[in-house]
Amino acid sequence: MNDGPPKHTNRLLEATSPYLLQHAHNPVDWYEWGPEALDKARSEGKPIFLSIGYSACHWCHVMAHESFENEAIAAAMNRLFVNIKVDREERPDLDEIYMRATVLMNQGQGGWPMSVWLTPDCKPFFAGTYFPPTSRFGRPGFGELCERIGQLWETRREDLQADAGRLAELVDQQLRGDLSQDDGLGLPLIDQVVVNMARSFDQEKGGISGGGPNKFPPSMALELFLRFLQRNPQAPEAAQVLAVTRLTLDRMARGGIYDHLAGGIHRYSTDVDWLVPHFEKMLYDQALVSRAYIDAWQFSGDPFYAETARSIFDYVLADLQSVAGGIYSTRDADSEGREGKYYVWTNAELQRILGADAERFGAYYGFAPGGNWDDPHEPGVEKNILHVTQTVADFATQRGVDPAEVARTLADGRRKLLAARAERVAPGLDDKVLVEWNGMMIASLARGGAALGEEKYIEAARRAADFLLTHQVQDGRIVRAWRDGRKLEMAFLTDYACLIDGLLELYEATFEQRWLDAAVDLNAAAIEHFWDAQRGGFFFTPDDHETLITRSKDVRDNATPSGNSVQLGNLLRLAAMRGDNDLREKAERTIRGLGSEVRQAPGASDRFLAAVELARSGPLEIAIVGDPAVPATRALLREIRRSYIPNRIIMLRRPDGPAPVGVPLLADRGQIDGQPTVYLCRDYACRLPVTSVEALRGQLKTELGGTLRQAGD
Fold first, then answer.
1. Residue 398 domain boundaries
2. Which of 16, 283, 540, 600 qualifies as a FRET site for 590, CA 20 to 30 Å off?
3. CATH code of the domain in which 647 resides
4. How many Å from the N-terminal Cα to the C-terminal Cα in the chain?
5. 22-45 confidence digits (pLDDT tens)
6. CATH number of the domain encompassing residue 166
7. Which of 405, 423, 441 is the last residue of a domain?
8. Are 262 and 418 in contact (CB under 8 A)?
9. Are 331 and 280 within 8 A, CB to CB?
10. What phi, psi does 433 have (nearest 5°)?
């Protein structure tokens, strides 16, 4: 092994992104996206090779090793192109634009690593994803492809530029969206979307496949399903919607996609059975999936869902939250160059670690004599991925043993395997702090902590919010990425929207005014810099962002919710909290301005439709006058927080202080007979105030049309 200095070093050594730093010693003359690289391409008349990926991307690692570390291929790249490397997590604006071009050029196929060739004015003319170094798998070899593109640039440059211009126009049209206005989005459309989506789910194993075996956690669809069930419990389709919701939640939490030792959810399952995951752990999945399980626990009362949410939260606190409070982005899929090596077990390892308990533990967690997974890196070598096919009670009954004894054996086995796993080489950690993903996790931790009565999760949300507001909000503007004291000096709509959402959830969990004030300020900045005053809705990039080939306005939810989806909900919540009719009108203009695009593919805008449901149903406004430290106030709050009320806002006024300025919901509210008091309101028309849990429960049930759902005691 060579322990000397690296043979090559390029400009990426100065990057903040762990993904870019992974390529800092390639022989490729990499640039970051910026004026230096773009000016060089224009002045020399060279095409740009743009490579976009992220640190936990398995095939990004493969292509880097095969091609970008290959000196002959790197020499060709350096001779023919200006080479730019981009972290899609830091620059989602570039990723969105050039992924759309890649999909258009490849019959709907896209992915990472993304490999795009651009004219010097940044218009794409050829694109793909992973290319092997030499031709195989039906794919052209990357080295040959580079030479061919370089030759075409010299001999057919005008044709390539013309093609690039046409493609850029098409990308611009798609990303700017349908410019027509549509105010027809309403509850009937949402209900039909839910029914259609539920029918497309796997009725035996849950989830939905996107044309192949892969299954991603459908977190935002499940949120929409639960909202439908709360409003339409007697609908003919309700039984099917409920069945696929519970089936999906159960199969995910028991499958290999879930880490049964440390908690947390992997990115997706590579098979329809939820057994074999793509092993990376993304922060945004922890946020979205835990939120779905909290909602499901409130709705159903099933303690299994609360347990699953807790385990995801505990994983985030233990592995991803920094000492300073910010939450890191990703655990890689690979360790020691192999995907999943950290997470799988042989039967011999199980026997060595657990001894006499190995048989019982292995039987419960699905170990097979020849292994349950064929590792492509070691074909024929038995490997096992932990997964569960039945409850502890059913397993114990089958074996005629005490369920409590089984539970103790399993807990002891998990502890021992986790300790053994800690001795392995851990997958890489992407330790940058992204505002967007942190905002999502803050929202889930705050909401979940309040619902479960777990102060440690609320405190983790506080720490993360403090970190972001201290390090990543400067002069009222957000800085998207932070790593080791260095910052990426830009941010996008999703950063503002997700942080605002997280701050609103944190306010409702703590009633600390500073969180609401920060949300109001950031919302004003989002309107100033992202709002489309002409057509409504929000652009993805701010008004002072660098000029790209288009300025997109997206409403489609992908792995994460779109900025417009989250921001629509923020506008509606802040409008109710602040009594702000201008925000309410902006929300309606957002619905009208983006409605036509949503109608084109309503199943791709789950979170946006959830916000539309809030707009059409109206929020249940809950005003509390009481000291949250007093047991009687806490009892009332517990009644509210264990209830499934998706369209609610909660505000609190302490009895010994003045009503907050600019909060009409709390104006002129007092206690009854000196007791903590709750007012349930819609549009500031309130029911009679109540002071007892029983009276509050009755009013909640009436407000929700008799459909109040609550988690059990």
1. 343-423
2. 283
3. 3.40.30
4. 59
5. 999 999 999 999 999 999 999 999
6. 3.40.30.10
7. 423
8. yes
9. yes
10. -110, 115
